[in-house]
């Protein structure tokens, strides 16, 4: 059994940090704080359980077989070198995985489509336009007329649609505790539904490599009660300086900034960013900027937006 | 039918040769199979270029459009030249099966001349495009157009050079199983380029004119 | 003069960038001097040229691929250790961001394209002709060209670090980051040119081995009797041929964007970066199956031999190989679920990606049931195979997790993803390559590799592997992104990163032990005098070790699966053992310098493309055309090994 026990020791050693880490509050993905992240968490748990159905027997079989059928002179286990086919066994190990894939596939489809819809139906949707830059995040609030850099504030209990684009290489917007990530693509606008249950500061980071300063692309999502959110926005609008076109060009320059807040920003700035370069590679399909679907129920948890209403 | 069997490499007279010359040696048969497989990879290569063209062909960025660029006379003449050259290449292969060296040389020369004609027309088309500012740096549509058609043109150029070298060998060494295989393979390549051109003609030029 | 030289040194040689560059330069110079000195001192220049550089013998070519793969494993491993050293502690700046970015780019590119690919090609070359009873591959000259194209592509890529700068946009090299606007300089060009250069060789290898297996099997070797390793090579070649043209196009178009100003993937003037991403992954996903399928083939051979039992479910195993090849083409979008394709598209690719796990799982069960009621011998190849099972099954399971698109929205581009693909690539591919190397080493060189040091390396590697990569699953779930050159101290990532670094160093140590094992075994390894050190089952074990140039004195007739086993234990020996009266003259291809020269010419042309010095490009391509012309006009490219010579040789080995 010497070899077997070595396997167990090595296995425990390997699993220990993983198992222990799963408990800690730092494991953001497994501590969802919003409905979208919770849906994903449920799928994770389901899929791990389904996979253990396969993994545990495989591990057990491996250990048993290696232990029992060693080529030792005194081994009296059966030796049947002619037995090389079994229809029954083939049926089992082709069909059980198919069933598992069927079940997991069905739940995956369900969740994938669910994430394209707002987490709950609520007419109080807040919109935040996001522009990823080198190497900072710009948040524009079209309805509240304020803007921030490297942090954003959202109200709790309300669906927030983050509309994502990039004025820099392709990045990805990721707040692990609130939702899955979504790419920010230059020349496109993609929507991500996010909702926070409770007030708190949630860690966010860029999730697609954009060059030298990529490691600095962290940001915070601060969830506050609805009234606190409104107060905050009003406060900025009244007291914070405005973001001008020149100011935006400065932000576009490669570099790292800290947190910034603005009380206003040029009307249509987001649209301009998305549609610059002639609406770039979407132009042939969209015609003019006012066309395009705004159907929030279609497709993914993101939709290509036609824009054009002065954001 | 004797003619069809003849075209497939079987002997016309029904007995003196078991197989067409290029299939008589295992080594040559193997090389022909290898070349068919290479053509499959080349087909996928062109497939990717077609896919890129299909995605980017509406992205003209306000620049020249297919309608402004494509001239029916020009691509009509190119097509005529290339398709005919494929036919004459086929005649060369048939002559080879009959063992008629001079005929092979003649038809290959005609094929080469027609190939050069195709290239000449294409070059002048590109030159004209450049003159009116339709260069491949202008827009995604132009980048993908010139790359797709240009890659085909590079293949044709290489094919012309290849045919010249093969022609030289046929003249110098006569028709042996080896030179027969070389004639067969270069003509296979040539027919392939012809098929690709038919797709280019349809997907790029005809649809471009109609869109 | 000196200021001009200093400018050159700083710009191209990057001497102003610090010790990493200087150390690399010094090591390269030392290595070159050492090699030149050794060859001169031992008067082996002629031998090197005659026996290796101009060879067309598949066995020699295979050994050259193997040596290159091990060297690249070293280089890629050093890259990994540099990264892990940086990440051992938060806030480290031993590597600045730019160097770190170059290092993770070269690490990934080298490991996949210049380590895993040559490793599988080494096994293709060494084993396939011997297993099918052939004298060589279908196109030996082309085979040599494939090797030299790979060699010079790898060389071009490797010199980038010390001349001009390495690519630094990740091994996937997405635009618009890799367009000139965000990434000027030769670094990215090196990537695009070097990979395409070696890619041409890869396509040629695919054609070569496909035709070899289709056309050159020994008489009587029907498809039902083909060994599973050869089947896996067949499947891998089909995938190579369908996938590599897409990579060629993707990289060529991006190169045009960078050096000719076109707009395929730029943000300006109508370009579409998503086109690159699609083309790249249409190649990229099949690529990982290209490398894993031969590893599966190795496992099939090893499990059968060291369980003293024929492989369980042969037909099922063949079907699953071919199914995996086909399904691998239907899953590529799972690499960019988060790019906004839509729930319907994402769902399709999610389910397809899960499906590819089904035939893979079938193989695991078939291997287990081959061992069941067999007699298992724990030799080094078998140890690596047994270690593969739990490792790859776990890695495959996390692959299914990643396939579920919504989960991927959390795992994508995090350390969870890194842990998954390292587990499948190391636990699946590298373990398979090591098992294959240990299994067929005696056939190549005539001696076995030392078991004891091999076992030490095995345990060090396995423990190191789990200590390195299991924490990374946790790190991904804790929000740690990939490609970050450093990380903050307040995220709770510190201990796990340190653990991961320790594991990496253990694997590095294991590699050193393997190197020592090889050097030690050259002198002291157990000699293989029978040609069949493992009591093998397939035809390669019927030949002496090392194998003579002509492989089989008489081509065997195949009457059963596992023909050598049938010969030894089922009375079929007369079909395999050569008889003196059946020996004839054998024609083999002559040695030729042209494959090497073609490779060198492409290197020069490629170098010119990287720096946009088009004179070099023109010269290089002209030289290629010359070589092609010379080959076309070549009449006499074979030489004869006389029947008497063969008879004598076989007699001295006691075989006739």
The low-pLDDT segments of chain C are none
What general outline of chain C do the C-alpha atoms trace? Answer: globular
CATH class annotation of chain C: Mainly Alpha
Looking at the overall shape, the CATH architecture of chain C is Up-down Bundle
Biggest sheet of chain A: strands side by side, in what order? 8-5-1-2-3-11
Strand content of chain A: 15-25%
Specify the biggest β-sheet of chain C.
2 strands, antiparallel
Name the strands of the widest sheet of chain C in spatial order. Answer: 1-2
Would you tell me which CATH topology of chain C applies? Cytochrome C Oxidase, Chain A
Structural class of chain C, by secondary structure, is: mainly alpha
Query: What is the CATH C level class of the largest domain in chain A, in words?
Result: Mainly Beta
Q: How many individual domains of chain C?
A: 1
Rounded to an integer in angstroms, the radius of gyration calculated over CA atoms of chain C is 25 Å
- The name of the CATH architecture of the largest domain in chain A is Sandwich
How many angstroms does the end-to-end distance of chain A come to?
Answer: 70 Å
Membrane topology (chain A): Multi-pass membrane protein
Subcellular location (chain A): Cell membrane
Domain Cytochrome oxidase subunit II copper A binding (chain A): 123-235
InterPro entries (chain A): CcO_II, CcO_II-like_C, Cupredoxin, CuRO_UO_II, Cyt_c_oxidase_su2_TM_dom, Cyt_c_oxidase_su2_TM_sf
Q: Secondary-structure map with pairings?
A:
The complex is a heterotrimer of chains A (311), B (211) and C (656).
Chain A lengths: L1 H22 L11 H34 L18 H28 L11 E8 L2 E6 L4 E4 L1 E5 L4 E7 L4 E4 L7 E3 L5 E5 L5 E7 L11 E7 L1 H14 L5 H8 L7 E3 L6 H11 L3 H4 L25
Parallel strand pairs in A: 1-5, 4-10
Antiparallel strand pairs in A: 1-2, 2-3, 3-11, 5-8, 6-7, 6-9, 9-10
Helix pairs in contact in A: 2-3
Chain B lengths: L1 H6 L18 H31 L9 H4 L2 H26 L3 H31 L8 H34 L3 H34 L1
Helix pairs in contact in B: 2-6, 2-7, 4-5, 4-7, 5-6, 6-7
Chain C lengths: L1 H10 L7 H23 L3 H9 L4 H30 L9 H35 L8 H20 L27 H29 L12 H33 L12 H34 L7 H14 L15 H13 L1 H15 L8 H24 L1 H7 L3 H31 L5 H27 L16 H31 L38 H7 L16 E4 L4 H18 L2 H20 L4 E4 L1 H10 L4
Antiparallel strand pairs in C: 1-2
Helix pairs in contact in C: 4-5, 4-6, 4-17, 5-6, 5-7, 5-9, 5-15, 6-7, 6-19, 7-8, 7-19, 8-9, 8-10, 9-12, 9-15, 10-12, 13-15, 13-16, 15-16, 16-17, 19-20
